[in-house]
């Protein structure tokens, strides 16, 4: 079988393009030059749709300003609408990491849109005298404003997915907080017994910290609503007609449905990548805190016989090829690894942002790769953590209570009443002898049984109230340990 081809050219020469492909010669060169990650820009559908939205807004503005023929503008818009609807995404094969500051991505979009617009006008692919990738689809634009604007629109959409998923995870922890509100357990600091709390309080704290990160993500997400359309090459607006910047931004805002605004200084906006640095930092913050929670889940569920064993994670798969019956905490483990990736991507974004020179930062492709992959991994990871782990966590209530009753840490609740020195002596003797704190306190007549029962009651341990040691009811029977 033979594949029909068409001949296309750029200033470097002519190349044959399979005629069933909508992309052209510059996309072909990019495919040959950048076999880097194996991830095509089609793997980030938000970016492909955003590119089409940018090109549609530009075509509308150029048509209204009389810069391109109305029929050409209409055909370009129609082709863009198809791409936004999910069609032709397989025609975006350029690798996400590339040299040229995103030129290959921009030209991939220009060529696909031009060739589809030609078809819609009854022409053949490659008949660029009617609709040209540069002269028409890229009219009044440069890669340096079209690509970062599309990047920001796509990033805003991706961050919205992460915000929604993190909020659902936060709500799942909050639900467990309510479910475990009456489960008495031992709190720990430095992996040592501290003071009692409820398992519900522990899970409520997880919900609270994730809720804070939802707010930080929303704040960071707002930073990418400022775009530099109309900047063209370096921010001076060369080759763009009067009124284009305001008009294309307004049309883009209408198309995307988000409150996009034009940057006050287009020269600064063309090279500035500070928003990406801040977003990467917030992603790192989310990753660090979520990974810490996953570490806790692994510790709290450790065992089943020789660990803490305070909670049970849903059993999902056999945990060993050699140890029968072993079940591992695979969901927290996989989310830990996702979080490590996002933490590392923050450094990549930082270095790439710092390494821009003069009027352009050519490293935006790797910035995009680091942010898009981090967000995608976190969205997927947080979803499975919620569905396959958090929602199904159960409490080992008796185990939790047993650890509190046998803990030396409960002596802290008696500290205001019998004093630090007496409390320390009881703790030391309990540790050496294996006897309980309550037993020793009563034996030494340090407090009455009634007061001890009150201090060590579940209600008081979960919601401690201060007992004034100067009141008669709180007075110890003996001030010193015998």
* Largest sheet composition: 2 strands, antiparallel
N-to-C CA distance: 100 Å
Structural class: mainly alpha
Low-confidence stretches: 475-482
Mean pLDDT: 93
Number of strands: 8
Assembly form of the protein: single chain
Do you know the CATH topology of the largest domain? Answer: Fumarase C, Chain A, domain 2
Catalytic activity: L-aspartate = fumarate + NH4(+)
Domain Fumarase C C-terminal: 410-462
Protein name: Aspartate ammonia-lyase
EC number: 4.3.1.1
Q: In a nutshell, what does this entry contain?
A:
Residues 410-462 form the Fumarase C C-terminal domain. The chain has 482 residues and is mainly α.
Description:
By secondary structure, this protein is mainly alpha-helical. It folds into three domains: 13-139, Fumarase C, Chain B, domain 1, CATH 1.10.275; 145-228 and 261-398, Fumarase C, Chain A, domain 2; 408-462, Fumarase/aspartase (C-terminal domain) (Ribonucleotide Reductase Protein R1, domain 1, Orthogonal Bundle). It has helices at 25-33, 45-64, 70-84, 103-120, 133-137, 143-179, 199-221, 244-256, 266-271, 274-300, 330-354, 364-388, 397-405, 415-418, 420-433, 437-443, 449-455, 458-462; strands at 5-10, 13-18, 184-189, 192-198, 226-227, 261-262, 311-312, 394-395. A two-stranded antiparallel ribbon has the order 1-2. A two-stranded antiparallel ribbon has the order 3-4. Residues 475-482 have low confidence and may be disordered.
SSE inventory with pairings:
Blueprint (H helix, E strand, L loop, with lengths): L4 E6 L2 E6 L6 H9 L11 H20 L5 H15 L18 H18 L12 H5 L5 H37 L4 E6 L2 E7 H23 L4 E2 L16 H13 L4 E2 L3 H6 L2 H27 L10 E2 L17 H25 L9 H25 L5 E2 L1 H9 L9 H4 L1 H14 L3 H7 L5 H7 L2 H5 L20
Parallel strand pairs: 5-6
Antiparallel strand pairs: 1-2, 3-4, 7-8
């Amino acid at each position: 079988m033979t594949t029909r081809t068409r001949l296309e050219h750029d200033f470097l020469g002519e190349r044959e393009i399979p005629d069933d492909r909508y992309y052209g010669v510059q996309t072909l060169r990019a495919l040959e030059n950048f076999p880097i990650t194996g991830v095509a820009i089609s793997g980030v559908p938000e970016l492909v749709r955003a590119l089409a939205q940018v090109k549609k807004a530009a075509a509308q503005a150029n048509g209204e300003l009389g810069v391109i023929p109305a029929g050409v503008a209409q055909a370009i818009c129609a082709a863009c609408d198809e791409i936004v609807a999910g069609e032709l995404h397989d025609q975006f094969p350029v690798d996400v990491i590339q040299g040229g500051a995103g030129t290959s991505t921009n030209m991939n979009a220009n060529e696909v849109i031009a060739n589809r617009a030609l078809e819609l006008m009854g022409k053949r692919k490659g008949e660029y005298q009617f609709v040209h990738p540069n002269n028409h689809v890229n009219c009044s634009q440069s890669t340096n404003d079209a690509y970062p604007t599309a990047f920001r629109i796509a990033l805003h959409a991706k961050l919205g997915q992460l915000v929604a998923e993190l909020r659902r995870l936060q709500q799942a922890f909050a639900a467990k907080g309510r479910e475990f509100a009456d489960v008495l357990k031992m709190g720990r600091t430095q992996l040592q017994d501290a003071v009692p709390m409820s398992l519900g309080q522990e899970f409520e704290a997880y919900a609270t910290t994730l809720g804070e990160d939802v707010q930080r993500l929303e704040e960071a997400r707002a930073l990418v609503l400022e775009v530099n359309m109309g900047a063209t090459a370096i921010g001076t607006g060369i080759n763009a007609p009067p009124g284009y910047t305001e008009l294309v931004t307004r049309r883009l805002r209408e198309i995307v449905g988000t409150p996009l605004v034009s940057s006050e200084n287009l020269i600064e906006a063309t090279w500035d990548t500070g928003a990406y640095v801040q977003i990467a930092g917030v992603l790192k913050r989310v990753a660090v805190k979520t990974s810490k929670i996953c570490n806790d889940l692994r510790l709290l569920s450790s065992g089943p016989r020789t660990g803490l064993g305070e909670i049970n994670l849903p059993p999902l798969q056999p945990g060993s090829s050699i140890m029968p019956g072993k079940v591992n905490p695979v969901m927290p483990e996989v989310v830990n690894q996702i979080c490590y990736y996002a933490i590392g991507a923050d450094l990549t974004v930082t270095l790439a942002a710092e390494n821009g020179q003069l009027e352009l930062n050519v490293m935006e492709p790797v910035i995009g790769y680091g942010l898009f992959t981090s967000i995608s991994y976190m969205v997927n990871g947080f979803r499975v953590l919620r569905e396959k782990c958090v929602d199904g966590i159960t409490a080992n209530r008796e185990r939790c209570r047993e650890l509190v009753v046998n803990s030396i840490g409960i002596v802290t609740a008696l500290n205001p009443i019998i004093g630090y020195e007496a409390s320390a002596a009881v703790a030391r003797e309990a540790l050496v002898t294996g006897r309980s704190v309550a037993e020793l306190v009563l034996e030494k007549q340090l407090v009455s049984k009634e007061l001890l029962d009150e201090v060590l009651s579940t209600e008081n341990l979960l919601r401690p109230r201060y007992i004034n040691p100067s009141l008669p009811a709180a007075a110890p029977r003996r001030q010193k340990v015998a």
